[in-house]
Amino acid sequence: MIWEILMAMSFQPPKGTCDLLPDKMILRGIIVDGIRRVFENYGYEPMETPAFESCPLLEIKCGEDIREQIYKFKDKGGRDLGLRYDLTVPLARVVASNPQLPKPFKRYCISRVWRYEKPTATRRREFFQCDVDIVGSPDPISDAEVVAVAADCLEALGLSNFLVRLNNRKILEGMLEYVGVSGDRALDVFRAIDKLAKIGREGVKGELRKIGVAPPASSKLLDLICKEGEPKGVLDYAKGLLKGITAAEGGCRELELVVSHLKRFGLPEERLRVDLSLARGIDYYTGPIFEVIMEGDEDVGSVAGGGRYDTLIELCGGRATPATGISLGVDRIAEIIERRRSLPVPRIIAKVFVAPADDSMRSEAVAIVQELRRGNIASDIDLAKRRLAAQLEYASKRGFPYAVIVGKRELQQGSVLLRDMTARTQRIVKRDKLVEVLRGLVTPKG
Amino acid sequence: MIWEILMAMSFQPPKGTCDLLPDKMILRGIIVDGIRRVFENYGYEPMETPAFESCPLLEIKCGEDIREQIYKFKDKGGRDLGLRYDLTVPLARVVASNPQLPKPFKRYCISRVWRYEKPTATRRREFFQCDVDIVGSPDPISDAEVVAVAADCLEALGLSNFLVRLNNRKILEGMLEYVGVSGDRALDVFRAIDKLAKIGREGVKGELRKIGVAPPASSKLLDLICKEGEPKGVLDYAKGLLKGITAAEGGCRELELVVSHLKRFGLPEERLRVDLSLARGIDYYTGPIFEVIMEGDEDVGSVAGGGRYDTLIELCGGRATPATGISLGVDRIAEIIERRRSLPVPRIIAKVFVAPADDSMRSEAVAIVQELRRGNIASDIDLAKRRLAAQLEYASKRGFPYAVIVGKRELQQGSVLLRDMTARTQRIVKRDKLVEVLRGLVTPKG
After folding, report:
1. Does B76 touch chain A (CB under 8 A)?
2. ipTM value of the model?
3. How many CB atoms lie within 10 A of CB A442?
4. Residues of B in contact with A46 (CB under 8 A)
5. Which of A407, A405, A414 minimizes the C-alpha distance to A433?
6. Would you place residue B3 in the very low, low, confident or very high pLDDT band (cuts 50, 70, 90)?
């Protein structure tokens, strides 16, 4: 037994990854189906790209931190490959090399990405992202739409108390100009600011010093950007401060438009914040940026994030093409729903366990289970030649809501026993009414 | 333009992989949804494991050919990792380290795997597998069930003219004993035989010679196993030949039981073949093995394959646990359906494009599209501020079946124009009846 434990321990999922056993996967399925439904309702079409890409592609505009996090390898042909760290760069590659796609091109992708990060309770090295992107529209209505999609996904999953944090890289660039930091340092500064929640103000100041932004400029910058609240107030503050810095003024106007479009899309204004310290950690953003957090579960981190990236497609070899998008994190959404127990999650997908009362009933039991399955009633049958009591114990352990007991006496009268495993009651049902009766029981109401 | 083409060419999907643009993905979605439905109807529960595993795990019983095909890399912590080459080994690891799972444990997994093979039209380095496995049942009824599941999946996708090829590793082992080849060479011999369709009889003889099985033994072996046909005839032949070789006789009996269970599960007998040359290329199989091909599309290769692997879980550090499973290949199924044009595949998932007739109608158009979306009618709206004619051209290019034109005159009368993009007709619909009317039009009949 010790040896068994040692052996089993030697094969665990690789560090930072995890298995999703059925008890976890059923909720995942509900989340992903709900998100996909909203994505499709908004007119996004599905697309998939390979799990790995050429390294030089992945390293375009990923920024130093992400560059360190890419899983890199050579294939046997000597190609430098890396597991994708997001779904946006592969999209940019596809758009760059498929100029025939009608624009705006709206696609969704629900798939895995990988980053070699320090694993925490809510941060893994392999995680599932659900992305929507709009390629080919420079208009702030598109930024607003992707945020509205994310908000609708959360609503659909019963997570209404979200907060959308908005900012614009152009405003941050204006802030740098205001405190006299060269625009060349902008991306380094943004990556430092992005760590504010993680390493605190002094930590960020340390990072800034490393890249040549010392106090008092760094303190002043942090003072200026630590401003967060309802959109109008914060944007008025930014506009006042940055008057005359044309790009930043444009950035403020863009955010005003994003906010007004969001309201038209139906987002309650009290769910919107402008947060001038929001920076996002990836280098490809060029305009509005956004993050969504859940009130009361801020410690999980953002459940969605994204922004506008108007130069990435050209950098990937395509025509200059504006684009914006957002990504929902399945793992964090699942974590929050599990914590809150806010969605009813069945223990098992199958509904019915068919149990032959003895060996002479097995053929008939197979006939019955096949009838149920072909009638779209998810059903299972004993495959271990167990006695009836052991079969029902197994059915109860797995959580089947119903069992059908196929006994000789009932069958001779053209019937079977239908057992409600939760109520622990049973009744006789005519064999030829069984599919109909069970369909009535297992079909979701409404 | 030349430069643009060169740049775009420099970022292609890595060799042996491909992008699945929406036109391909819509069919994929139909296939995967259909397969998942059948899997769930048969009582399998969803499970996911990481894309990569530790190399030593992957190399357990994979066999030499697969070992050469694993994408290997070290993570930054120096761990030896590899992309999984199938979904079975990760399952075995999970079962080994989770002895609490109730048995039989039935799980499905629909996900990607990777093998560094020579890419062909129907063989890629990244591909999608749909697996069902039954862990904990040694009974041939379980082998029959997984084959029945695969057959039902194909039926559900309109692919009824499949052929199931069956064999048993125990019969092949008996053949080796019969021709006087040591059992130690069995796995090497099976890998050679597995290449029969690919490299032909002389090729296999060459491979066999390399591993020390020279003529006349190799010729005799090939003569004996090249026997294929309806189950009873071939199994009678094998039983006659291998009389007295106990394990092989047991293997024949197992296949007889698999066949009789398959008939009870409802598979037409004329779809079943026993093919004594079927070997399967992976080392972990221990008993019945199976492959499914489509008549008329044999060149695509098998669309499903699997078998029993009764020792793998113990080799992964768990208790000795019998298991069997089958894997459907999404890519090949898609290829066949595309060739045959045998399923109706819509050009686009979204149904309705909402087009404001001019800029003053944009707010109202947003209100309408949000109403449709929240009513689960997949809809899109102009995001590019185009004029009406350009909007309708875009809607037609993308293939929307319907457009809603929001014009000032109609709106003043509480109406909009509903355009059938296929029939090129339009009619006036009351604004407050629009969701209802469109739901009637876009809901699938029956």
Report:
1. yes
2. 0.95
3. 17
4. 22, 25-26, 28-29, 349
5. A414
6. low
